[in-house]
Amino acid sequence: MAAKRLGLVVDTKRCMGCHTCALACKAENNLPDGTFWNRVMTVGGEAIDTSAGTYPNATKLYLTVSCQHCENPACTRVCPVGATTKDEETGIVHQDYDRCIGCRMCIAACPYTGVRSFNWEEPKYSIDTTLGGAQVPLHQKHVVEKCVLCEHRLIEGELPSCVTACPAYARHFGDFSDPVSEVSGLIAAREYKQLLPEEGTSPSVYYLV
Asked: Can you say whether the dihedral through the CA atoms of 23, 161, 139, 110 is positive or negative?
């Protein structure tokens, strides 16, 4: 077990589906065109921002979905070259671009569809200016990528970009192994759910309901 268990708490009652977290992640990590590590899903109709049900009983819920940084990640067990690993200090699931051979076994093993991306071609950008933190690694062709909780920001004592950018204060970051941390307090005080708990991965992202 890792010394820490860093992760996120997302308050679905505060999230308004503005996609600011997704865009902040994209800018901070200089993601190529068409690539998102954090997606805002609408639990409702078939199209984005549509409600479930009909008036006056219509409901709408947003779920922001990214790598779940599982305590028992399925992806690390299948990577043949050790490109997908779990950090023993923080619990963050890493992705090493230089070691990745593009086999995509991690994508196949992960039960959370769409949280990883694969660069089939050389990454392309709509603008000429490089965005994001100076320590963000360069994106490469034929490698798998995903959220790493902005670990380059954590090293500098900062929060993940998606957390600081959220205008509704719906996102919280911290150490679940610390019983007095903010995130531990939130899941102790509020009802929550996790994605696909039946898979046994023990995700480190909790959704307050």
From this structure: negative
Task: Sketch out the chain's domains with CATH numbers.
Answer: 6-208 (3.30.70.20)
Angstrom distances, CA of residue 109 to CA of 1, 72, 77, 102, 104: 21, 12, 9, 14, 9
Encoded amino acid at 105, one letter: M
Q: How far apart are CA 96 and CA 82, in angstroms?
A: 8
Instruction: Report the predicted TM-score, pTM, of the whole model to 2 decimal places.
Output: 0.92
What letter does residue 199 receive in the DSSP assignment? G
Q: Are 65 and 42 contacting, i.e. CB atoms less than 8 angstroms apart?
A: no
**Digits of tens for pLDDT over the chain (209 positions)?**
678 999 999 999 999 999 999 999 999 999 999 999 999 998 877 778 888 888 888 888 899 999 999 999 999 999 999 999 999 999 999 999 999 999 999 999 999 999 999 999 999 999 888 888 888 989 999 999 999 999 999 999 999 999 999 999 999 999 999 999 999 999 999 999 999 999 999 999 999 99
